[in-house]
Design goal:
Number of strands: 17
Low-confidence stretches: none
Structural class: alpha+beta
Distance between the termini: 26 Å
Number of helices: 10
Largest sheet: 9 strands, mixed
Order of helices and strands: EEEEEEHEHHEEHEEEEHHEEHEHEHH
Strand order of the largest sheet: 3-2-1-7-9-8-5-6-4
Shape: flat
């Protein structure tokens, strides 16, 4: 039997982040897909294998979990170069979108062929077994959508075929899940705050505090209320507002004012978060400041996010601190800090390392699913020992 490999995958609205195995392999793929033809034209096809795999992900996905089955996709950076690329729609449910599954399967297939954890069999087919840890927004978990999402993945074989992709052209990966754990995103963030990768407690002072965690994503905002080391389901709130709508607005205003077409929301995020030339774009070869556009749009969004915080804190007055996490928090950090200093002066905390905030969910899922796998393995050994003893 093929040994099950750990996979911790956060399919964020902006990008997929994933940790595999013993964290020896991590994958980051912009969450953009585009339906495509099987035989896509490539300039310099002879040099295909010299190109970056992550820039040229071209796959066919066959899975009973998909609404549209057996479709060819460009995924990630390659998809942003087309005029029919799609990003998750505002107001959509992550658990019900084909795009979520296509991204998930693409990352697993890539790990399966690149990690060496699984050997290819006949006809270059790789059979890969995974124990998956992933998550959904609190709102979707509260509505019970995690049950359907999990059942879609378990009990079926999901096949990914690499088409015109460097180094992997013609390879097929059959993915099976031995177990799927779907965690509410707010609780996952809490676990990441208090435990290291070996599940040792690292922030003891947080364990018994009542804390808030505001996770600002692309399509939604979740505010988890943590008390007695668990998410208070009755107090936790989810809102259908994230940064995507504002990113689209910035993209459109840049197009109208400067005549520049940005490929995706990912380009907008890069413009407003990068270290060098932040809030600048190139217009006809000239470096141009777009801070007037980004500033007023992001400030308006920050005001709405701050209103969420104020309302939830008013209903949970004994909370001691609120942690802002997620890609949206990295985008809005300066605006939220300024608003808080001017207005209420709540005890709020951001992660100065933006990368830590962006990878928080993937790291949390890794800790949780690894802990689950360890306990399951111990239980299995215990049962086998008991069975052997009885047989004697």
């Amino acid at each position: 039997m093929t040994k099950s490999r750990i996979a911790a995958v956060d399919v964020g609205n902006d990008a997929l982040k994933a940790n595999f195995g013993k964290m020896e392999n991590e994958v980051y793929i912009p969450n953009v897909v585009a339906q495509d033809m099987e035989d896509r034209p490539v300039i310099g096809i002879e040099e295909l294998d010299e190109k970056d795999v992550l820039d040229n992900l071209h796959i066919r996905v066959h899975s009973p979990a998909l609404e549209e089955n057996n479709v060819v996709y460009r995924v990630g950076n390659l998809a942003t170069k087309t005029n029919n690329s799609t990003e998750l729609d505002i107001g959509s449910n992550k658990s019900e979108e084909d795009q979520t599954l296509v991204m998930l399967f693409a990352s697993l297939a890539l790990d399966a062929v690149e990690s060496g954890a699984f050997k290819a069999g006949k006809n270059d087919v790789v059979d890969a077994n995974y124990t998956l840890g992933t998550g959904l927004p609190l709102r979707e978990v509260k509505e019970g959508k995690d049950v359907g999402y999990r059942s879609q993945l378990l009990g079926s074989v999901h096949q990914i075929e690499f088409l015109i992709t460097p180094k992997h052209q013609g390879k097929k990966v059959n993915i099976k899940f031995d177990e799927v754990k779907v965690y509410p995103e707010g609780f996952a963030a809490y676990v990441n705050l208090i435990m290291d990768n070996d599940l040792n407690v690292i922030n003891k002072e947080l364990i018994d505090k009542q804390i808030l965690i505001q996770d600002i994503g692309g399509l939604s905002t979740d505010i988890a209320v943590i008390r007695n080391r668990n998410v208070d389901d009755d107090k936790a709130q989810g809102f259908n507002l994230g940064v995507s709508e504002s990113l689209e607005q910035i993209r459109e205003e840049i197009r109208i004012k400067h005549g520049v077409e940005l490929d995706s929301r990912r380009d907008v995020v890069d413009i407003i978060t990068r270290n060098n030339d932040r809030h600048h774009i190139m217009v006809k070869g000239s470096r141009t400041n777009v801070h007037d556009i980004t500033d007023h749009i992001l400030l308006e969004l920050a005001k709405k996010e701050y209103r969420f915080l104020r309302n939830v804190w008013a209903k949970n007055s004994q909370s001691e601190i609120c942690y802002f996490v997620g890609g949206g928090s990295a985008v809005l950090k300066d605006y939220l800090k300024a608003l808080n200093n001017k207005l209420d002066g709540y005890n709020i905390e951001f992660f100065e390392d933006e990368n830590e905030s962006i990878w928080m969910m993937a790291n949390a899922y890794y800790k949780l699913v690894t802990d689950f796998a360890r306990k399951a393995e111990k239980e299995k050994v215990k049962e086998e020992t008991t069975t052997t003893a009885k047989a004697k």
